[in-house]
Structures are given as structure tokens and as C-alpha cells.
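[job 4471] stage=fold_predict status=RUNNING
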Amino acid sequence: MKLIAEHREVYGLMAEFEDPTSLVNATHKAYHEGYRRMDAYSPYPIEELHEALGSHHSRLPLIVLIGGLAGCIGGYLLQYWVSALAYPLNIGGKPLHSWPAFIPVTFECTILVAALSCVLGMLALNGLPQPYHPVFNVPRFALASRNRFFLCIESQDPKFDIEGTRRFLETLDPREVTTVAD
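[job 4471] inference complete, writing C-alpha cells
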């Protein structure tokens, strides 16, 4: 029972690497070993790292599409309601439902709502704002924004075993393996 309570206090294990190639190779090996709940941290973007982590495709394009369609339909219906139903004025013999005149506002509403849904969707999917994260408890993690590369395997991973995972991370030739407190 004590092991379970101790397991909950640990967020994961973090390995520190000197260069991006070591981080990408270690991440590939961890993924092939069966670890799925892990994250990597580097001072700059590494293109191969996304693939090495086994990250799935984002739902953000779908969110933007739905937002754009909602803006398009909402903008068009608002103009139709105003000009044909709520306040119908016959000016110069034009029809009340003059769809060519609705195109610019419909387009602008599409772009506006798609852009807003993109920003809000990105924040929601990234879990932002997040002023605190357990990896900030590791003193050497401050180097992640300068010149070090980190791989963290979370304790929520089904394959995570604190001793076994530590032994596995040490076989990857890291500079240091640290326990991340929750």
C-alpha cells in the first residue's frame, strides 16, 4: 500500500541529454520500448522529435473548420434576418434577399470566427495557461531554455515502474536521471 501512495507523489522520471540527436534517439528507443506517456523539452524546435514521441495529429484543423463554418452561416443568416425579415426596405427595386451583397460580410465573419476558434482551440488543446508544471521542481530543468535537452516519462504511463524505468533511462546514456516530484 505504501508503494502506491509513494507512486502518486512522483510525476515521473526525467533524463537530461547534451545534444538533440541523443534526445531524439532516446525518445525513439523509449517509444519502441512501449512508453507512451512522455514528453520532451528542448531550447528550440526539433522536427524529428514530434515523430519520435509518437504524437497523433491535432484536432485544431477541425476546430478551425467548424468555427469558420459557424461564422459563415451566422454572418449570412444575420444579414438575411436583418434585410429580409426584421427590417425589410425595398430600395431601388432590389430584392430583399440580395445574396451578392451579403458576400463580403459573410467572408469577414468566416475569417473572424475561424481565427478566434483557432486561438482558443490552440490554448485549450495545449492546456494553457499553465503557470505551474511538476517539471519545474527539477533544478536543472532551467537549462531546458538554454542548452540542455530533457525526456520525461510520466508515472501515469502503464509501463512505468520507478526502478525499471530508471534502469531503462540510464541505458540511454543521459547526463543525469532525476525523479520529478508531483
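[job 4471] summary: The helical segments are 2-8, 20-33, 47-52, 60-86, 99-125, 162-171.
[job 4471] exit 0
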